[in-house]
């Protein structure tokens, strides 16, 4: 029997009942409707992954380290390596000095960066601002790491004076800096160049810096002036979400770190013929293909154009809201527009993220000026709380 015949001899998968198919059709219709009317979450919708549909029939598993061979070969690790190499170039990592992989999202990337920091400095103290993503507190609890929260400025950026004073008090402890490169609510960006200067002023020579660039990892490299956040600026690890600015039907992300740090935690696992260097052993083999597809479709110039388009429409959104009498604002070069929380009906229809009396809309490349006009009209009709 030929191999192809053997594959075709698998038992037929039972078909769904008519009621089950109806439920799926109803879910699809509902989700398509809801996808068309959300502005409050940083999830790009302008992607086309139809070329990857045949891969759904395969048990893709990027088991273990993407740069080491494995006995399991139904994988997309060659494409994963191309994805992380593209990100490493954008983030100005020196050749042969970096390592990375595709994971489940920005939170996993942050967990990985903190894990590396803990292994390097087990008694270190983690510093992060009030604007930090909620998952970081959970990650710190899981890792059992000491930490201190630093005040945030109104913009969401860390308060450098509070950081300096807190570091001064704890100069005997190695600092592990968790820097936000785009906070959740206001897209405030911490300046790791300024943070490193504070370390120098206080004669702190040992430290670790992780950059949480979940939303802005593929935005910040194209901004002028370019924020200080990447490897050339002194980061030890960087986390990026793939489903936010890049766009993906499945949550995913990229984490990059200096290779010498990763080598400290690598372990060889005999039965998979691979290294244990990632958070999860089995990893999604489809998401690297999704991001590879976007990178091949767009390239650096395509991403540059996406950034320019988002900034233009974000500026338009802020102006239109202000013209409508709404106290809207945005940080310089941000695609997040912040405003007082509107009526519940408006929040529900546009799926706005809200906290402490403020809401925001995130102007991803798929958001049009026409959508902004509809939102502003709805806001004007519904009013604020």
Using brief descriptors, characterize the structure shown.
385 residues, seven-stranded mixed sheet, 11 helices, 15% strand, globular
Strand order of the largest sheet: 1-7-6-5-4-2-3
Count of beta strands: 12
Query: Structural class per helix/strand content?
Result: alpha/beta
How far apart the termini lie comes to 71 Å
Anisotropy-based shape: globular
- Uncertain runs: 268-273
SSE arrangement:
Elements: H1 3-8, H2 18-35, H3 77-90, E1 98-103, H4 106-120, E2 125-129, H5 135-143, E3 146-150, H6 160-169, E4 175-180, H7 192-201, E5 208-212, E6 237-241, E7 253-258, H8 259-262, E8 267-269, E9 274-276, H9 287-323, E10 336-340, H10 344-350, E11 353-355, E12 358-362, H11 369-382
Parallel strand pairs: 2-3, 2-4, 4-5, 5-6
Antiparallel strand pairs: 1-7, 6-7, 8-9, 10-12, 11-12
Q: What can be said about this structure in brief?
A:
The chain is α/β, with parallel strands linked by helices.
Structural notes for this entry:
The protein is of the alpha/beta class and 385 residues long. Helices cover 37% and strands 15% of the residues. The chain has eleven helices and twelve strands. The strands form three sheets. Strands 1-7-6-5-4-2-3 form a seven-stranded mixed beta sheet, sandwiched between helices. Helix 5 (135-143) links the parallel strand 2 (125-129) and strand 3. Helix 4 packs parallel to helix 5. The termini are far apart. Mean pLDDT is 92; it is low at 268-273.
